[in-house]
Amino acid sequence: MKFAALLKEFIKEINRNKYLYILALPGIIFLTIFAYVPMIGHVIAFKDYNFQKGIFGSPWAGFKHFQFFFGSRDWLIVTKNTLLLNVYFIVFSMITAIIMALLLNEVVSILKLKQKIFSN
């Protein structure tokens, strides 16, 4: 098929299901902003980053930074500490969330009890 015919078919498809595409638009925007845009920042790991030149103006370094990191003696300790801190954060966040949920549940129960007592 020629490009013009494909374009015409595509526009017809959009018009036929425009409400479904509108419904999907917030999810597509959310996914783009929070999943794909941050990937641009991962390029910094492969660059000799210069703040004044920006991400794309800085010279390319390749795997130089990774060779430096894994070539040092402390890379295993640094990696272990990073993973351990993330586990601590997850555990303490979970404990705090559970405690807050229980406390909030108790407040609601006390308010309902007071409502029953004073309504009689």
Rg, rounded, reads 27 Å
- The sequence of SSEs as H and E is HHHH
Helix content: over 70%
Shape: flat
**Can you tell me the number of structural domains?**
2
DSSP helical segment count: 4
Mean pLDDT: 91
Task: Give a topology summary.
Layout: H1 3-16, H2 18-36, H3 64-71, H4 75-119
Overview of the structural elements:
This protein has 120 residues and is mainly α. The chain contains 4 helices and no strands. The protein is flat and about 75 Å long.
Brief summary:
0% of the residues are buried. Helices cover 72% and strands 0% of the residues. The protein has helices at 3-16, 18-36, 64-71, 75-119.
Overview features:
mainly alpha
